[in-house]
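Budget justification aside, the reviewers requested a transparent look at the raw inputs and outputs of the sequence design task funded under Objective 1. We therefore reproduce one unedited record. The lines immediately below are the structure tokens for a 164-residue chain.
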């Protein structure tokens, strides 16, 4: 179990580095697009039509990717008051069952997100005229990241279970 944990942590560290870089680009692009929209609309008085659409799509991608990073770092809201009132041994089981449920949910998100991306692949966005599959593919990509970080957390929990 230690070897699996080591391998997952090594891969996870590299994945996290790339996730942070991609997030920086997405947030930077979104910020630049919104600033362009504000300047063009209120200063120059000639709005750029595609800025709203680009910033919206970047926000969708940012939400899914940043959410996975939040899950890895443990900053998502949980049902702490229920878990804290449970006995110590029960807490570990509640945590494991919760993480397995989360993993199942994200497996559904990956599969359904893939099907939805394929379903809308012929639909074009109103202004940019790009395939909506690019936007909807944030679902399976985010789901894969969420699932990876959840598996990593489950392996850590199992490692602690087996050593105690």
């Amino acid at each position: 179990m230690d070897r699996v944990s080591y391998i997952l942590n090594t891969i996870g560290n590299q994945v996290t580095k790339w996730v942070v870089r991609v997030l920086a680009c997405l947030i930077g692009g979104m910020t630049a697009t919104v600033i362009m929209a504000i300047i063009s609309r209120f200063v120059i008085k000639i709005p750029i039509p595609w800025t709203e659409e680009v910033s919206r799509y970047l926000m969708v991608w940012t939400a899914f990717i940043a959410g996975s990073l939040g899950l890895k770092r443990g900053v998502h809201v949980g049902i702490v008051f229920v878990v804290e009132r449970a006995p110590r041994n029960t807490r570990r089981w509640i945590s494991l069952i919760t993480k397995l449920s989360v993993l199942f949910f994200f497996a559904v998100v990956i599969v359904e997100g893939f099907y939805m991306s394929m379903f809308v692949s012929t639909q074009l966005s109103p202004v940019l005229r790009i395939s909506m599959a690019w936007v909807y593919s944030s679902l399976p990509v985010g789901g894969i990241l969420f699932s990876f970080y959840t598996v990593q957390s489950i392996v850590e929990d199992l490692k602690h279970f087996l050593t105690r």
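The two ends are 13 Å apart (CA to CA). Residues 2-163 form one domain. Computational costs for records of this kind are itemized in the attached budget.
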